[in-house]
Design brief:
Largest interface: A-B, 57 and 58 residues
Order of helices and strands of chain A: HHHHHHHHHH
Strand content of chain A: under 5%
Oligomer: homotetramer
CATH architecture of the largest domain in chain A: Orthogonal Bundle
Helix content of chain A: over 70%
Chain lengths: 203, 203, 203, 203
DNA sequence: GATGAATGAGAATTCATTCAT
DNA sequence: TATGAATGAATTCTCATTCAT
């Protein structure tokens, strides 16, 4: 009879964790990590203060929890990267579109944690190692293939890849700063960026 | 009579303010705004806690002080923008080189304030209005001229300019995240970026 | 019909209570009353937190439970006191040996509760009235008989009896403080104490 | 002019520390270490909560502060030990009188800290090493001299000394337990104890 | 009876800010 | 002006106790 007693338990725990992380994301995004209080998060989640500490050891763990949830959804996207066929022009567009879509979908979460990622050495390292660096390792061989195939110019690869990554991250920052174009024309960016990256501005 | 007693006074006050802002920049960069205490800043500046409050009304004012000092040095750079002659290829390189140089020179200050700029709505607004938006207003007519002159393609200007700005800001973020290439090959970026922006990667 | 269903029930309850008190004794002895948590005691007893509250109304009741269990075993020893024959020299040795044996056997329990007995007015009173005072009432007539019989000197009885009791309690304290001699030569004390009490140190 | 600026400062600091320790002693004695709150101590000292933390790093430091102040007054007494001349009979009486006087004078402080000394391993160790053990080291050679001089019997010294120390500590405990005789006839104890220790009870 | 998730009151500690000297 | 002791509001985290299952 009691066929899946643990899965149900585990599901309840997961649901509670998510409920708390949702609340934390919202409050952090508004007030920032230090500005937010456990009480506010608890009220947002409609639970008692102490309950949070059943699921997360410290306030900092909430931030890590948000970051990890974010990474998971990033990783789901990463898979798509590899699906892309040989056409490197459409690769760029698809790739950028996906990245910007993720930012769009989880914007509040980024807003909640990016300031503290930039501030806290541990978080910086965690984020760089877990998220940014893997992107580089994943992208570099692809670029190298294209160079070898003569599809793109033999550029300084490390610097170029970082520049492209910076473009995406910079757009996130620009949007966080409240730039209206970055907010309202978000969908236009992938194509413009692709054109820029592939063919440049010069006639 | 006493014609310039105030200038001397004012200079002393300015010196003291700078001494405090230097200390604050250093401490904020290491510990973040909330992580830093007035005592730590006072110790770094080798003055008493209370003295800080003679020159700055609140802790937050220190942050604004740093931001404003930063803006001034940015503005000094902005002038150079206009010096650039007609050659739009060298314009890009010079422009980007200058922007990255400013970041390089004031990196610690950026590290000290960027996280809190991204977090605090007022600071976000202040920074966007005072620093980012002027860049757009300044650059857009120049680009339009070039388009009119047939030098560059008739792109979506707002989006393109934001993409280029994002590249610079994203590099700052990448460097804050500790990316070794962004730190060690910082000087290479302007040229690579210029080549990318003008001619793209595709052969 | 069911003639002794309660005794079995009662026995089960008693067993559970003892199981919990054993766990509490161990944890209190290590961490102290306030330092110990119900969760730790529950884990030590391998039951759930809530179960403890079926058998004990509050955390404080656990302390009282330990104290009462201790008193019972003390009382069992008290009986021996009366067995002792007329020889008052051997009485002392036997008496002290028994007291020190009890301390030895229940040392952990003493360690668990003595600090809180000394601190808490109610517990102090409870312990004094239930344990210490009865000793005095029990011992005093015996001493008086000996004085009447000319066996011992006509001393200030109240003070003398307290001094002897203090010796035993002080040894407990010394042992709790970790004194190596008090721990390792515990068995030597009754004889030395008896010699001291009866004949003194002076030649 | 500013001849003793530091001594005045130092004196103020010392006075404040003592003011706080007095308050802490009183509150700890009543409610115990864990039962007492910083707020209560602050109120007792008529200062703000935060002020306590200028003079003591943690609540535990208050306890150590009380203990150390106690040790100092003990040490002042210790000197007297050595003043005592060759008459070992009067030595005992003087010695015990002094010890009991110290207990009498600082009873509240003992009440405040003894429970927690007995409970906390570090404090136990601190107290034993700093206070109890020195007593043994100090007393043992004196006893050995007396044995050598044939003044007292060749007893098991370590055990005997501990027994005598235990007597004193046990009386403190007895008094803490509220024993009326120990409280009201405190002054009688040194003589009775001396008589007991030197000549015993037996006729 | 047994469980353990949820509760929320309560405590230690920090730190921006003030102000008498 | 400069100082730094004093303030006390505010915050994180703990844990005895309850109660629905």
């Amino acid at each position: 009879m009691a066929e899946q007693p643990e899965p149900i338990q585990a599901q309840l725990i997961k649901a509670r964790r998510n409920q708390i992380l949702d609340a934390a994301t919202q409050v952090f995004a508004t007030k920032g990590f230090h500005g937010a209080t456990i009480r506010q998060i608890a009220q947002q989640a409609e639970i008692a203060d102490g309950t949070i500490y059943i699921y997360f050891k410290t306030k900092t763990d909430l931030l890590l929890g948000i970051l990890n949830r974010l990474n998971e959804s990033e990783r789901r996207k990463e898979d798509m990267t590899q699906e892309v066929g040989g056409d490197f022009a459409s690769f760029f567009c698809t790739y950028l579109r996906h990245r910007l879509q993720v930012i769009d979908a989880d914007f509040q979460a980024f807003q909640a944690i990016l300031p503290d990622i930039l501030r806290t050495p541990e978080l910086r390292n965690h984020y760089y190692t877990q998220v940014i660096e893997p992107t580089f390792s994943l992208t570099e061989p692809i670029f190298q293939t294209w160079i070898a195939q003569g599809l793109i110019k033999p550029v300084n690869l490390a610097v170029t890849i970082r520049t492209i990554t910076a473009m995406v991250m910079g757009l996130l920052v620009l949007r966080m700063l409240g730039d209206r174009v970055a907010i309202e024309q978000w969908a236009q960016f992938p194509e413009v960026m692709t054109a820029l990256i592939l063919h440049g501005l010069a006639k």
